[in-house]
Write a structure and sequence with these properties.
The structure holds 2 protein chains of 2 kinds. By secondary structure, chain A is an all-alpha fold. Helix content of chain A is 67%, strand content 2%. Chain A is built from 14 helices and 2 strands, in the order αααααααααααββααα. In chain A, strand 1 and strand 2 form a beta hairpin. In chain A, helix 3 packs antiparallel against helix 5 and helix 7 packs antiparallel against helix 8. The radius of gyration of chain A is 24 Å and the shape is globular. Chain B is α+β, with helices and mostly antiparallel strands. Chain B contains 2 helices and 3 strands, in the order ββαβα. In chain B, strands 2-1-3 form a 3-stranded antiparallel beta sheet, covered by helices on one side. In chain B, a hairpin with a 6-residue loop joins strand 1 and strand 2. Chain B starts with 12 loop residues before the first strand and ends in a 23-residue tail after the last helix. The N terminus of chain B is likely disordered. The chains are: A mainly alpha, B alpha+beta. Chains A and B meet through helix 5, helix 6, helix 8 and helix 14 of A and strand 2 and helix 1 of B.
Chain lengths: 337, 100
């Protein structure tokens, strides 16, 4: 990313003391702000992470959005509308944070629809039944909360502030999902089977949301040193499992992992290993819905082009009209005087 | 604040300030893109006040904001650092003087 800001801070410590100042700010647990000097690697890592995060929110509108017209009641439809609107909002908060680093919004969108930037693997799985809407709220948003709460203290100010807003809203997402599932579990056998089936399909992909295991996560060390990241992938995954097992018991569903059991010694649940080969396949573009998700995003972008252009033309016309009015007024005032 | 030029005819960037409730200042909450001021206001409402976060919104084109830069930081703010006599604790007043 070459921007005037980026170019200025390039050049390997040409301005003495800046690196020290940056390191000291990080060491004191203070925030880095947009106009501060920062190492190029820090800026690049943040742009990549925030953009991927934003893309995930935007693509994440699709799996659930499919169910808005098929929601079984007006109440569920209104809730789903609000939730999907929130996902759009989260994407925009994050794009806004990325722009403070010198990234360009339109450029980020292009990178997404050309497949040059990634988004969370979870959104490449299909939503087959309405129970999937509930399970996404419970497990996917639950995992997102585990990931995002520590990001509220991430070292880059605008990212941390965006995460605070997002976390406030995620709680609604998780609770509406769990409530939806509780309602279905109180229903018929067929509904209960639907919930269990959805849990079976979403459990492992949810665990993959925390990223590869620590020994296979090459970027983690730098992110931890820069305090962009506060906990390792495996730590967060464990936290999610510990949090979720009692919720599953209360709901009356079985998590599809024969190795899942409480470990008294560790004080944590032991659990099986996700299929990392599947994770790599899906993240590199070969999941069940990757092509469809990108095609839909591209279509929305291209079909919306005339709206963006028309709005600009309208704005230009309004500005010209306001300018003429001002000229007329000053001409009249001149004549009167 | 974006620093790349708008070569694709993109909507300009606006900074958004929200007054949370009466009695508080407007606070910067983030940015958004819009074609004009009116659209920026309605986008700001949809984006930053979906849950009663505000009673008043200001939007301003990002390019219209002038800001102190990091290069100026130390000398720029220096005048406020070396005038201890601006603070009430600079003055010794006996403990038995009431209400001061």
């Amino acid at each position: 990313m070459t921007t005037s800001q980026g170019a200025r801070s390039d050049g390997g410590g040409a301005e003495p003391g800046l690196q020290e100042q940056f390191d000291a700010t990080i060491a004191k647990d203070q925030r880095i702000e947009p106009r501060d000097w920062m190492p190029e690697g820090y800026r690049r890592t943040l742009i990549r992470q925030i953009a991927q995060h934003a893309h995930s929110e935007i693509i994440g509108m699709q799996p659930e959005g499919e169910w808005i017209t098929k929601a079984p009641s007006l109440r569920r439809k209104a809730i789903l509308f609000a939730k999907v609107q929130d996902e759009a909002g989260h994407g925009l908060y994050l794009y806004s944070a990325a722009e403070t680093l010198g990234a360009d919004r339109a450029d980020l969108t292009e990178r997404l629809i050309e497949g040059r930037q990634k988004y969370s693997s979870i959104f490449n799985y299909p939503t087959l039944t309405f129970a999937d809407v509930g399970v996404i709220g419970w497990l996917v948003d639950g995992a997102a909360i585990c990931n995002q709460v520590p990001l509220c203290r991430t070292s880059y100010g605008p990212y941390a502030r965006a995460m605070v807003r997002i976390c406030k809203e995620e709680s609604f997402h998780q609770r509406q999902g769990y409530e939806l599932l509780m309602t279905m579990m109180r229903g018929t056998d067929a509904q209960r089977e639907m919930v269990q089936d959805a849990v079976n399909r979403w459990w492992w992909p949810s665990l993959m949301m925390f990223g590869p295991p620590d020994h296979d996560s090459p970027n983690s060390a730098a992110s931890m040193a820069w305090k962009i990241k506060r906990h390792s992938n495996d730590e967060l995954r464990q936290r999610f499992v510990d949090m979720t097992v009692p919720q599953a018991e209360k709901l009356g569903v079985t998590l599809p992992d024969p190795e899942l059991r409480w470990n008294e010694e560790r004080g944590h649940y032991d659990f099986g290993t996700p299929d990392w080969a599947e994770f790599k396949r899906v993240i590199s573009g070969d999941g069940p819905c990757n092509a469809q998700r990108i095609a839909r995003r591209r279509a929305a972008h291209e079909e919306g082009a005339w709206v963006r252009e028309a709005a600009l033309a309208h704005a230009a016309k309004q500005a010209a009209r306001a300018g003429r009015k001002r000229e007329d007024q000053s001409a009249q005032e001149g004549a009167a005087a | 604040m974006s620093s790349t030029g708008s070569t694709r005819n993109d909507w300009p960037l606006y900074e958004v300030f929200v007054r949370g409730k009466r009695g508080l200042n407007h606070v910067h909450v983030g940015s958004l893109h819009a074609a004009d001021d009116a659209m920026a206001l309605s986008h700001a409402r949809d984006l930053y006040t979906r849950r009663n976060e505000g009673v008043s919104i200001w939007v301003v084109r990002s390019e219209h904001i002038a800001a102190s830069t990091r290069d100026e930081k130390d000398p720029f703010f220096a005048p406020s650092a070396d005038k201890v006599y601006r603070h009430p604790t600079f003055y010794d007043i006996p403990d038995d003087v009431p209400h001061i």
